[in-house]
Amino acid sequence: MNREMLRKIHLIASRTAFLCIFGFWTSTLISELFLSQMAVVAVKNAISYGVFVLIVAMALTGVTGFKMGGKSKHPNIVTKKKRMPFIAVNGLLILLPCAFYLCHKANLGQFDGVFYGIQAVELVAGFVNLVLMGLSMKDGLNIRKPKKA
User: Fold this and answer.
1) What is the DSSP string of 90-129?
2) Is the pTM of this model over 0.85?
């Protein structure tokens, strides 16, 4: 696979992952603050299916990023490589379990203190990943820009 094709896949996958998390985060916030419990259940169910798109997008982002970055010492690439494990661990160990647990609780109608506590953790972790992914996207775009003299 040539470098240009890797770059296109990386760009599409990273944007898809970012938009998934952004969509999950905003739909959660809106449904929890302004909509009915039925809407919250619908959002939680949609997120539990949508995470599979997110997982594929994150995997493609990681694989293509590492292939393109290789052993580069470019500061932006080094920074992106340092961020990615935290993003992945946050997603796999916090966001995924929270999403499935909250979906389960919502479907049981258990909107209790535990539900809202886990929901708060998920929102914070999701926001952190959005910020880190946004910074990585910015760094990636800056790699291609020529430096001004």
Assistant:
1) IIIIIIHHHHHHHHHHHHTT--SHHHHHHHHHHHHHHHHH
2) yes
HEC per residue, 26-79: HHHHHHHHHCCHHHHHHHHHHHHHHHHHHHHHHHHHHHHHHHHHCCCCCHHHHH
Condensed to tens digits (0 to 9), the pLDDT of residues 70-112 reads: 888 888 888 888 999 999 999 999 999 999 999 999 999 999 9
18 burial (CB, 10 Å; 0-12 / 13-18 / 19+) is buried
> In a 3-state reduction of DSSP, which class is residue 1?
coil
Instruction: Please report how the helices 96-107 and 37-69 are oriented relative to each other, as an axis angle in degrees rounded to 10.
Output: 160
Exposure b/e, 19-36, CB count within 10 A at least 16 = b: ebbbebbebbeebbeeee
Rounded Cα distance between 7 and 13, Å, is 10
Distance of CA 19 to the CA centre of its chain: 8
Neighbours of 67 (CB within 10 A): 13
CA distance 14 to 60: 8
